[in-house]
Amino acid sequence: MASGEGRRRHHDLVPLAALISREMKSEKMEKPTVRYGHAAQSKKGEDYFLIKADCHRVPGNPSSTFSVFAIFDGHNGNAAAIFTREHLLNHVLGAIPRGLGREEWLQALPRALVSGFVKTDKEFQSRGETSGTTATFVIVDRWTVTVASVGDSRCILDTQGGDVTTLTVDHRLEENVEERQRVTSSGGEVGRLSIVGGVEIGPLRCWPGGLCLSRSIGDMDVGEFIVPIPYVKQVKLSNAGGRLIIASDGIWDAVSSEMAAKSCRGVPAELAARQVVKEALRTRGLKDDTTCIVVDVIPPDNKVEPLPPPRKRNKLRALLFRKKSRDSATKLAKKLSAVGIVEELFEEGSAMLAERLGNDDTSAQSTSGLFTCAVCQVDLASSEGISVHAGSIFSTSAKPWQGPFLCADCRNKKDAMEGKRPSGVKVA
């Protein structure tokens, strides 16, 4: 009898290779398909975009693939938009520590995005060119979407239930009261154009320079209180997937987020992007560059049943984004996914670099044994690094010798962005 039970247990065993095969198949089944399309109409030739669907977290490992989609809307020339398209991605990835697992990598992204944006701005300003650009930068890793943005290009999420959510914040001085207050407290002046007789016209602008935006990359002739520190939002989609619409202000000045989403529902991503541009041109005409990228995150086999209409939509909107701590139980995540609710993982829009880079309990040392600058990633001797918290009014609980650390050049930029010293920018 015992030998029979032993034989049955023996036959229930599964070879290791089969187990690995099952796990890989399961992972593949759980991974969504990402499809995308792009369309544009040019008026000034200052809109640029980036689509890179074959990035790897682990070099050479196809299972670590993620996708990047971005729009850069230049002004006062196209140099800043071109430079940012060519360098921002590498600067972001260079700020992420090596050897992280996927979950740790995703958690490190918000801070790396801040470092990458600031480094790109710092490098471009060192060239002495005066153009600027907005940047809306989207990373899609399976079901997780991370968006970083400065300026007024926008990214929206259209979910299966028909709810449209904006994943960015418009940094226009006209609409954003908090940003107006930040700019003026940092030393900038905000006002409208004045014509003969003292009549004020047009949108609110920052002086000197007359820029309508409070955040951008470049714009060295305006002052460094126009900061490149992005608003960052990270969400996890449900197993119903969703559609992202990323577009420059040539689209959003013509149509609302809801109109853009509605105009292209039910059609593939490539056609959807053309539909959004077509709707914007129909509404307003070609008054500005209009660029649109549509990204569909599609469930495996696309077999998710449509959601029943909610009884009270206001309750659904209240639940649409629900905060969740990193170390909370997975039961909530599964429940949210089951009912098609998008889960918010991270959101932060502060323009204070000390708040965005956080604290390092370790010494933030590089593999060479030296300290590294949290922004430009250069090696620093222990006597050279300046804590990002040193002298900050927001660091009452932080120690001025606690990392992350900045080199002297990046510390000067931090002080200029916060209005602690006049901008060192000189424009001929």
From TrEMBL:
EC number: 3.1.3.16
Domain PPM-type phosphatase: 28-297
Cited SUPFAM superfamilies: PP2C-like
Keywords of the record: Hydrolase, Magnesium, Manganese, Metal-binding, Protein phosphatase
Broad class of enzyme this protein falls into: hydrolase
Named cofactor requirement(s): Mn(2+); Mg(2+)
Molecular function as annotated in GO: metal ion binding; protein serine/threonine phosphatase activity
Reaction equations catalysed: O-phospho-L-threonyl-[protein] + H2O = L-threonyl-[protein] + phosphate; O-phospho-L-seryl-[protein] + H2O = L-seryl-[protein] + phosphate
SMART domains listed in its UniProt record: PP2C_SIG, PP2Cc
Protein family membership: Belongs to the PP2C family.
Name of protein: protein-serine/threonine phosphatase
